[in-house]
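User: Okay, second chain of the day. Same drill as before: sequence in, structure tokens out.
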Amino acid sequence: MLVSRILPFALLLGFLSGPVAAADVQQNACLTKSEQRTAVADRKAISLAQAVKSLREHGHRAELVRAKLCHHGDNLAYMLTLLARSGKVIVATVDATTGDVSNGR
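Assistant: Same drill. Structure tokens below.
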């Protein structure tokens, strides 16, 4: 009895939360390689080399493992995964329009 009452509510909740999750994923969606080249060529984003240089200027001397250019709110940002000499993985975000390092942990 209880399951038959909870099941429709759980299904409704699942359907209602789906569009929110899809919008959240689309907002932070990463660009393909061709979209990245276009964004840099159109000067909507700095190059990856400039983003890494900005990161180095902020004291991050770790090795770059992965870099993605993604939508971050209304702007573009590089999501950089770094490996420190100690073996610690660091995730840093660099604003792709200004080069500002917004976090590194």
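Confidence is low (pLDDT under 50) at residues 19-25.

User: Thanks, on to the next one.
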